[in-house]
Amino acid sequence: MASNNVAQFAAELKMPAGVLLEQLQAAGVQKASETDTLSETDKARLLDHLRKSHGSTDADKRKITLTKRHTSEIKQSDSTGKARTIQVEVRKKRTFVRRDESAEQAEASNHAADAAVAAEEAELQRREEEARREAELL
User: Fold this and answer.
1) What are the residue boundaries of the structural domains of the chain, listed by start?
2) Whole-model pTM above 0.85?
3) In Å, what is the CA distance from 45 to each residue of 48, 67, 73, 80, 99?
4) FRET label pair with 120: which of 64, 105, 112, 113, CA 20 to 30 Å apart?
5) Quick check: 70 and 87 in contact, CB under 8 A?
């Protein structure tokens, strides 16, 4: 996408050029008329401003929601023997969240530390058992 003017970009976005000029000025891009040229940095600045104003955050990038729809037909007969076709739609919604790598590493190190402590306690208990048995034998 090469740099083009405000009117061309508004036509590309299928919106009035006046509205686009207002959005550009709200984003801090100084454009006064429809014939002013827009660079890639101006477009990126506008996009960042619109994302912030509409509440999009980085947390949304880590979360993906899949919605599946499955439509099928069921034939059911009533008491008179007349058959009807009923359409059934099943919707499944599944959300996947990417965990932070640092949180996973911290969790793994916590598990390793817990396992080491548990192993030490088991060894201590084993030694105490052996000492008690030797004391009983004596």
Assistant:
1) 4-59, 62-97, 99-138
2) no
3) 5, 32, 50, 68, 29
4) 105
5) no
